[in-house]
């Protein structure tokens, strides 16, 4: 197979800063590189579609770069590397390893639970589990030693002790499935074994690894192999090391040794804040009882950073304007290409009045999502056969690309962390009319309307707060600002409370509680509350975010309903057809006449390049009970959606059912406008599909006109009058 894969070390930066690009090619000798500014997506041809013509930027980068393949060290593990780590007077040559393990995927081949080695890995011992049972393997053993050959099951806690006396050439093993903390007794699992090993010197063993066999053949990077899928809790080297996952913050990527400070570094973000051997069901909050959550859940498909070397570096010229850019990598001879987009912010003090807030948190949560291939319900909810493209099969053929927060680990556990520090195949300006392609339609609209604007990323707002927005009169959201941190919500609240204006041009916004790590950029954490039909995505005992200590789930369940900020909140979804909006009586109120200036149509947006209309995909309603302002005006609503549109609370199986009369009234998207006491205002369209109507009829249509009217008034500093 031929391929180009790439990513950058960051997704957002200022002029004058450097951006490093990491590239891997397979069976491609060289590739061209261009830096382009993206002002529209490539999603189709004709008068209804944008004219994809990225602007080529002048750089001093070489036009052609030699290709090379770079390997990804994926799979999570814990490691301690210290000189003479195990050569300690407290233990002598007698090493006793113990701990509690909870396997979640026992395979025919090895999964390594414990690995000790010298510096280059030429000498090692490993404890592994496979379909035969537990085995010890070593560089000095002629044959493996089978320790236990029956009864080990997935999703059960076991306690083990492995003793290696290197001076005496003796070893012993004990496993116990009757641990008093284990509520499910495995009485047949209570065995011990003595065995012989070669005599040798312990002084060379300076590396201790949990949950993987470490391949040290590459001096530049360690590659985890034979990764263990499951939890490890209270691992000890008797008299020397005791790892306690409750001894530090759950966000820390370190296991603390409470005995002698031989702390282990956690690689590739194994899942923390998960139930351990001491959990008794009394709480689901690790903050209340950290000792109950001291385990770490390792996965063979965990990935934070691909850790590739840099192939080229771009220093952003000071003259470049804020916008969405990309490194475009292309091998014409091999018919392969790859985009690496990035956000260029405005230099401080040179901001324009309008900012487009790009939903990089949503991009991260969906990064490399592979539901189109694996989801059993995909054709059911779309009402048609699934159409895949090469990006879907990239993820199948390249598992090292990692998973999204919509995927499942190979052991059946859910994915709670997702990172952008790896090649992301669905982060690009081409392909389906969704995510980034939809958001670039907003850029295309701003460009066609002659609006000067800046671009800013979610993570920028999260880390800088309201300071990142205060220079702007108007902030425009993306089409799908689904994933939001508390800091991001606070920042938008402060914007509208300080006379700012918010244009929410999407649906399903401000929905999931999302955590960012304080020290590791580009990664998000999501833990859902299990009540939503498609994404019951965590063990019900592990709902709190390790990064932030917040309870996962929706912001609505945390008391911060999207309706309070945007006037509308997510209610339903459907993916077969989209419809238009019909004007309401409120649309003739004097307060909103500026919105309909030059528009005589009663139906708005009964057209669009996304399934034929401006209202659809995922939609929001106005609801005073949930916090929509009582003075808000619902100026238009969609209707006549198909029976494949279902309410949020409904389970997948009911896609075959017809709507009840009550549900039918809620199967709609609402356009809402309201003023704020500070003189600001909010305009919300309640639909992901809205932006898919901008380009229809060569941008001559009532969706564009209406959006223009709102934006021009919002950029006018004249305060809005708050209604009595």
Verbal overview:
The protein is mostly beta strands. It has three domains: 3-52 and 61-70 and 319-344, Immunoglobulin-like (Sandwich); 77-298, Jelly Rolls; 354-715, no CATH class. Helix content is 12%, strand content 31%. It is built from eleven helices and 44 strands. The strands form eight sheets. The protein has a 16-stranded antiparallel β-sheet that branches. Helix 6 (458-464) crosses helix 7. The radius of gyration is 28 Å and the shape is elongated. The chain starts with a strand and ends in a 9-residue tail after the last helix.
Rg (CA only): 28 Å
Give the uncertain stretches in residue-range form.
182-186, 531-535, 650-662
Major sheet size, sense and barrel closure? 16 strands, antiparallel
Termini gap:
67 Å
Give the tally of structural domains.
3
Question: Which secondary-structure class do the elements indicate?
Answer: mainly beta
Would you tell me the overall average pLDDT? 91
The number of E-state strands comes to 44
Portion of residues in beta strands equals 25-35%
Morphology call: elongated
Instruction: Provide the helix percentage.
Output: 10-25%
Q: How many helices in DSSP terms?
A: 11
